[in-house]
Amino acid sequence: MQPQIILLKEGTENTQGKQQLVSNINACQVVVEAVRTTLGPRGMDKLIVTQNGKATISNDGATIMKLLDIVHPAAKTLVDIAKSQDAEVGDGTTSVVLIAGEILKQLKPFVDEGVHSRIIIKSLRRATQLAVDQINKLAVKIDKRSPESTRELLIKCAATALSSKLVSQQKGFFSTLVVDAVMYLDELLPLDMIGIKKVQGGALEESLLVRGVAFKKTFSYAGFEMQPKTYKNPKIALLNIELELKAERDNAEIRLDNVEEYQKIVDAEWSILYEKLDKITQSGAQVVLSKLPIGDVATQYFADRDMFCAGRVPDEDLKRTMKACGGAVMSTVHDLNDSALGTCQTFVEKQIGGERFNMFEGCAHAQTCTFILRGGAEQFLEETERSLHDAIMIVRRTLKNDAVVAGGGAIEMELSKMLRDESRMIAGKEQLLIGAVAKALEIIPRQLADNAGFDATNILNKLRQKHALGHTWYGVDIMKEDISDNFEECVWEPSVMKINALTAACEAACLILSVDETIKNPKAGEGGPPMGGGMGRGRGRPM
Ligand code: ADP
Ligand code: MG
After folding, report:
1. pTM
2. Distance from the alpha carbon of residue 446 to the mean position of ligand 2, in angstroms
3. Which of 86, 126, 313, 435 would staple 62 via disulfide (CB 3.0–4.6 Å)?
């Protein structure tokens, strides 16, 4: 009898081989099922309720994937590529998951039949390389010579990004705002210089773009109403100082045994506070912002001197004000000179819906702007914010890279055709594998048509015919329930987005195909239920 070799700790789960690969692919399919209906202008939204009861409505692939809280180790890869697509490009998150899932699905029969993963991976890499080269070849450079035509082009791009979102009815309105916002930024187009604030109530069309920094009025004390609310070219002090009486008392322990000494302490507190206030006033600042509270004494002191103050300004707003208006955030009042003070053309406090807003416009130091979104429900506003983020990213991308391809499945159909033609010239197994990738790319037009309620088979047949005849940009036309030249329809997408989506999807698929064994240490899943007797389903076990 052979001695039994125990290699792994008792209770370690260990699945391997072809079966494991197939089970991983199946898990990815489940994830794809969860997001596939959200693709495209007629895609559906998902309502996701998280553990703490917070409900989110979204159409954004990355958001949905993040909220799904997937535990399956292989399927998590798809979440990662959605996230990376979101971070890299900001759009195309649903597409990337869909393509990766479909590639795996098309390649599954080969895995089943025992084709070695390495061969599959090699072909997949080759197919991706061919596709990327083709995108680069097909991409159309847009003409940016005149600012007006650039602007128009960008608006069309933004409108395409928004047409698949909850705010598609207002896409004309928002695409102009988005393009204005992005074109207002300086050359590097820093994303953090666009702020988005949400105010519940009012109609979506009442949303506005402030060319500068804006934030909600902070909590204020009596006396605030007497402060002026508009300034021209004010000097702005940005502080990290508490302007309240009790401030010093918290910093030290003091032992007293008579009333006179107590009085001295109180007097000292007042004089310290007044000293700070005097210094601020002497610096010439007219608008005082602080990260820490500004109390009632200070508020009234400033009001008497026609100065404006706001305490407890959120850190990110203070930083943006600093970047936009210049100056520095000071933790002492001793060196408050002109170089530490910021300035802008106008400062106003304005009522917007039920909220008051502090707005700094005409900032010299950095181009920044702020969206103030209006609308009904909170979830609706949040989804609007995410949609605008997508559109902003697209416009930024188009401004930075000037090549676009036609969307609506047009580029995918063209790539699919190219790969199919190419595969026929290859002898051996690779022919079939590259053919499978070609088939997988058709998922995008198919799903777009499906989601809009069209007959996908019919649409796809028409598209295949058009592409075979050399009409490169034919894609699904959502409006006409047919196909049309999407380049002329201005359904455009930056070519980087498609390249990124393809390479990310390929990498994810390769990663999943190259794993043939999962070993799970019983202690690895901390807090999880003990594994055993069928409990492990969906956690790397065959399904
Ligand atoms: P993603 O998260 O991948 O960006 P979307 O829901 O934004 O998903 O859908 C994007 C897809 O919808 C792209 O393939 C794009 O080409 C397509 N699309 C967008 N607008 C239109 C349109 N007006 N007609 C046809 N297809 C469109
Ligand atoms: Mg999109």
Report:
1. 0.70
2. 16
3. 86
